[in-house]
Amino acid sequence: MRDVAIIGAGMIPFGRRDEDSLMDMLAYASLKALDDAGLGDKSVDAVYVANMGAGILQHQTSIASSLVDRLSLLPAAADVVENGPASGASAIKNGLLAVASGYYDYVLVVGGEKMREVTGWRATDFVATMTHPQAEYPYGITLPGMAGMFTRLYMEKYGVTREHLLAVTLKNQAMGALNPYAHVEMTLDREGIFDSPHAVVNNPVAADPLHLYDLCPVSDGAAAVVLCPLELAKKHAKAPVLIAGFGQATDTHTLQERGDPTDLKAVTLAAQQAFEMAKMKPADIDVAELHDAFTILEIAESEHVGFFKKGEGGKAAAAGKTRLGGQLPINMSGGLKARGHPVGATGVAQVVDIVYQLRHELPENRQVKNAKTGFTINFGGFGNNVVSFVLKRVEP
Amino acid sequence: MRDVAIIGAGMIPFGRRDEDSLMDMLAYASLKALDDAGLGDKSVDAVYVANMGAGILQHQTSIASSLVDRLSLLPAAADVVENGPASGASAIKNGLLAVASGYYDYVLVVGGEKMREVTGWRATDFVATMTHPQAEYPYGITLPGMAGMFTRLYMEKYGVTREHLLAVTLKNQAMGALNPYAHVEMTLDREGIFDSPHAVVNNPVAADPLHLYDLCPVSDGAAAVVLCPLELAKKHAKAPVLIAGFGQATDTHTLQERGDPTDLKAVTLAAQQAFEMAKMKPADIDVAELHDAFTILEIAESEHVGFFKKGEGGKAAAAGKTRLGGQLPINMSGGLKARGHPVGATGVAQVVDIVYQLRHELPENRQVKNAKTGFTINFGGFGNNVVSFVLKRVEP
Predict the structure, then answer these.
(1) Cβ pair B90:A79 closer than 8 A
(2) I need a surface site. Which of A82, B84, B98, B107 has the fewest CB within 10 A?
(3) Closest chain A C-alpha to B347 CA, distance in angstroms
(4) Cβ of B83 and A65 within 8 Å?
């Protein structure tokens, strides 16, 4: 297996992008990554497009074939990879293994989603298409609904409090406000959404015990990376980032079938695989992007992957250990919570953010000093298909 | 790159399967392939699901995550791969490269589609979601419409006649009638659909100059293969089939942008890549499955991949050179024309049929005697994303 590096990364500002088609967004992010890679007129051998909903939201299929033409990358091979909200990381995985195999040298991976194509309940319904078609979807359960029940169980079992969740909200919202690519640009204060009598209006219950600002927004967006063998990567301009480890694991489709529904086995396994391949352990990681579609997930994942002991993740967040300058900064991009969560784009955007961290390119108020190693969790379904990466700076 | 072999293959009868859900079909085909591979209780490391339309037709996403649970293959990694009607071959490609890389040992690839979920114009509209969203779809062009225009040009340029097309129809329909997995079980005779005055009723114009029986049906179905390194394959019961070559190439999304719209560049390129990797040439092939969604495509592809010279494919079909016992038997399964074309399943079904041929398991009336090498073309869009394989029998 050849070592594979990321030599280019790019993304477009997430948010509401009514003026852009899905194809526009995929093309913009791709061009930024190709440009960042300094490939110039050189083409790529293959393109992987991560997308969950073009069929439902845009009534389109075969978007990889369309994109490769739009980008003038013909006759490069092109496929779409779908794994719900973990489509982005799954697409990177397939690009990684294709390059690792020796068959392709240069691969573009781009993830995108235009979720604001539909509004109101249709957006929630679109996301719910990932639930079990017989055991869940017909009964009206939504992803926020599942997250609410999961949070209640987690609170009862591990003593997580709303105070802990609030710490995640405030941190990620503050970081998002500093990130030009983030969807939600406003900062929030504790007073307005928690302490004051107006909090009940400003931050209403969404799926008890989760409130509005415990949930990520519905976003449009796209992000891209360019992969090649580490050996070739050294020829390119910027510092390459090695994909040192990768893991992917599945769990039961429905939460109700899990012996302990608070146990996110696929998260634990995917992370273990990634650490094992990288020959590293959680304590070796300098910065992480976790899949905080709901604030509880950042806390639960930080425990399941081994950054904190079970029951300690919430306390760690409240104590500032996951802030910039803390023991392990998490979601310095603002996370899904503030950067936004265009489902097909998210897994790629997480890796793009870590690449920026490991290249030391971010402004001081977001850059983890001298970061050398990064970690991601991209969470498909409600933890039924999870993909993890360990990334490593390669010193020039 | 490790050599990769197919150690198991299975499919379910294509056709109208109102009683089965998409997930049922994917599961049945998978179980047949796993059983055929003799894996017993051993699980697989990863699952690739080829599917084009679950979002549009079943309002479902994340079906790979669901399938891996349904099959009790947890915690195997699982992704969906989509490349329009070439999704099946694209999924096999990704399984191939994943095993070739050394990361996974055992991979299940299953393709399926439940197209009869919708009826009438909705089925044609679903297929048309692969056309260009700005330059084609809004103007009402359909895939049969494109095929009609392509046929007219091909007839004018290369002298293909309706007699040539008829030869493909009759051959594939006759072979389909012998294939228990085929959708269309009836044989047709020349008199009824061509010569008699009733032909105009029995076989009406569908997209001039193509008639009804020049087009494949709209089918439900699923097919699966199990891959592993050739080295491990030798331990398993049946004769392994080596994936000796693979190629994939793209072309402009719209036909109108091609300098010569009769030139299927992506077909030529994908085949060249596959032959090059296999260190073989077209004359080395014993049996082929080509993508005859329309009869003209079998003829055009047989020329573009190098089995016959340009302008000779139609004559070769009419002269019986592509029949069983002929110079190069094509579509001994009945092809898309008679086996059916559940889009996500087709590319996998083609490979399954070649595996049966190379294992010498078919009844005498379909088996190419002593077949040692096989070839496939899976045609995405209207030739905008094409995948090809060269397969080789490994003597025990």
Answers:
(1) yes
(2) B107
(3) 14
(4) yes
- The shortest CB-CB distance from A101 to any of B76, B100, B381 is to B100
Phi, psi torsion values for A363, nearest 5 degrees: -65, 160
How is residue B214 annotated by DSSP? G
Interface test with B, best of A67, A82, A276 (most B CBs within 10 A): A82
Joined together, the tokens standing for residue A223 give 């992000």
Chain A hits for B74, CB-CB cut-off 8 Å, are: 250-252
A106, part of any domain: yes
CATH code of the domain containing B87: 3.40.47.10
The 10 Å Cβ neighbour count of residue B196 is 14
- Chain B environment of A69 (Cβ under 8 Å): 250-253, 384
Asked if residue A75 lies in contact with residue B265, where contact means CB atoms within 8 angstroms, the answer is yes
Distance CA A277, CA A116 (A): 38
The reply to whether ipTM tops 0.90 is yes
Q: How far is A221 from chain B (nearest CA, A)?
A: 19
Cβ–Cβ below 8 Å for A250 and B69 = yes
CA atoms of A384 and A377, how far apart (whole Å): 13
Q: How far apart are CA A367 and CA A373, in angstroms?
A: 13
Which residue of B54, B93, B250 is in closest CB contact with A68? B250
Give pLDDT tens digits along chain B (396 positions): 999 999 999 999 999 999 999 999 999 999 999 999 998 767 899 999 999 999 999 999 999 999 999 999 999 999 999 999 999 999 999 999 999 999 999 999 999 999 999 988 999 999 999 999 999 999 999 999 999 999 999 999 999 999 999 999 999 999 999 999 999 988 899 999 999 999 999 999 999 999 999 999 999 999 999 999 999 998 876 789 999 999 999 999 999 999 999 999 999 999 999 999 999 999 999 999 999 999 999 999 999 999 999 999 999 999 999 999 999 999 999 999 999 999 999 999 999 999 999 999 999 999 999 999 999 999 999 999 999 999 999 987
Question: Can you tell me the distance from the alpha carbon of A71 to that of A331, in angstroms, rounded to the nearest whole number?
Answer: 31
Tell me how close the Cα of A281 comes to any Cα of chain B, in angstroms.
20
Partner residue facing B249 (CB), from A77, A101, A252:
A77
Q: Indicate the number of domains in chain B.
A: 1
Residue B110 belongs to what domain range?
A: 4-119+218-233
How distant is the Cα of B248 from the closest Cα of chain A, in angstroms?
5
Q: How far apart are alpha carbons A8 and A39 in whole angstroms?
A: 9
Is residue B200 situated within a structural domain? no
Give bridge partners of residue A227 from the DSSP assignment: A6, A107
* Residue A16 buriedness (CB in 10 A; 0-12 / 13-18 / 19+): middle
B65 assigned to some structural domain: yes
A interface test, pick of B79, B136, B268, B386 with most A CB neighbours within 10 Å: B79
Task: Give A249's contacts in chain B (Cβ within 8 Å).
Answer: 75, 77
Contact A337, A168 (CB under 8 A): yes
Residue A348 in tokens: 């790629």
Which two tokens mark A107? 């691969």
Both tokens assigned to A248: 């992917």
- Residue of B77, B84, B251 lying closest to A248 (CB–CB): B77
Q: How many CB pairs under 8 A join A and B?
A: 201
- The bridge status of strand B46-50 relative to strand B77-82 is parallel
Judging contacts by C-beta atoms under 8 Å, the chain B residues touching residue A385 are: 62, 64-65, 68, 77-78
Torsion of CA A155, A157, A159, A165, to 10 degrees: -30
Sign of the torsion formed by the C-alpha atoms of B53, B56, B60 and B61: positive
Helix residue ranges, H only, chain B? 22-36, 63-70, 87-101, 121-128, 143-158, 162-178, 190, 199-202, 230-233, 265-278, 295-304, 313-318, 335-339, 343-358
